[in-house]
Amino acid sequence: MDRYLRLTLDADGRIVLPANLLSHLQAIDASAVRLVARDGRLWLWSEEHWQARQMGRFQDLVDALEAVRKNHLPTDAS
Question: What residue segments make up the domains of the chain, in order of their start?
């Protein structure tokens, strides 16, 4: 599969994905593909994989927030 694909928008602003990309995303028979913009990049995810990994992403967020909270607690150095 090519690393880069040129995608175009139709008149309604929808992106038509080529069959090889839909196949790679396991989205041939699916009703949705998840588009994620992060760090200046656009990511395409299979909706099935997105849902399957959702709890792991929530836990990663909880862990990151907990680490920030621990690093910003005042120390009892008196």
Answer: 19-71
CB distance 33 to 44 below 8 Å: yes
For the chain, give me the number of helices (H) and strands (E)?
3, 2
Write out the two tokens for 20.
Answer: 């090889």
- How far apart CA 40 and CA 48 sit, in angstroms, is 24
Average confidence score pLDDT of the chain: 83
Helix (H, G, I), strand (E, B) or coil at 32: coil
Instruction: Report pTM.
Output: 0.53
Listed in sequence order, the residues at least 6 apart from 27 whose beta carbon sits closer than 8 Å to its beta carbon are 17, 33, 46, 47
| pLDDT greater than 90 at residue 67 | yes
| Structure tokens belonging to residue 53 | 């990994």
pLDDT digits (tens, 9 = 90+) for 13-38: 888 888 888 888 888 777 778 888 88
